Amino acid sequence: MTEMDIAAPTEQFFSAETREALAEASRRLAERLQAHTEALLAMTGDEEQAALYEQNAALEELVEGWNDAVFEHTGTAPLLLEDTADDEDDEIEQDHVISVVSRFDLRVADLDALIEAGRAAQQRHPAELDDGAEPEPVESAEQAIYEISREVGEAWFELPGIEMVAGARAYVVPEPPFEPLDADAEDVVTELIAPNGTATHAETWA
Fold first, then answer.
1. Maximum CA pair distance of the chain?
2. β-bridge pairing 197-205 and 162-174
């Protein structure tokens, strides 16, 4: 059994009123628990699920009331019940999540110019490496674009030696069920898709 400690003075607890309220809450909970058990034992599995939910909800309400009565009397809560207010806050916060998904297809027109720019960007903005590790040499178009983007952000329209084939960006407000992007996924490419939701704005380039 887990109890919640509080710093409130004990004088405000253990009053005649809180003692009477706790006794009444305990009596009602005991009666409801017995009726709940009998109802469950009588079920065969053919009943509507709504009947089971009603039984559970009635018991849950009395358990919460009993837990509150214990707290009012002793200053401790024997049951750490789930806080539905926190769940509501999480839902409100989730409504403010915005997923920005983009894709740019680039054609390499001058590989030498691109690699030179990538190497210069790597020198100006070196990556944080473990002790003794060497930076990855810039020898490909992909590595060059990566190094330039690390330094200046999304520079799709200003990459040396690169021509834009097409680009698109969408701003999506996710809807439940919402699975956040897993930055530690082994295959991050599978994470680069728009989540279920409403696209509020979109941009395209060609």
1. 87
2. antiparallel
The predicted-structure confidence for 126-177, as pLDDT tens digits, reads as follows 877 777 678 888 999 999 998 999 888 888 888 999 998 999 999 998 888 8
Give the side-chain half-sphere CA count within 13 A for 130: 1
Going by C-alpha positions, the residue among 104, 103, 144 that lies closest to residue 125 is 144
> Do 70 and 77 form a contact (C-beta atoms < 8 A)?
yes
Q: Token pair for residue 71?
A: 């707290």
Per-residue pLDDT tens for 42-90? Answer: 888 776 777 778 888 888 888 888 988 888 888 888 887 766 555 554 5
Pair 79, 108: CB distance under 8 Å = no
CB 115: neighbour CB atoms within 10 A? Answer: 21
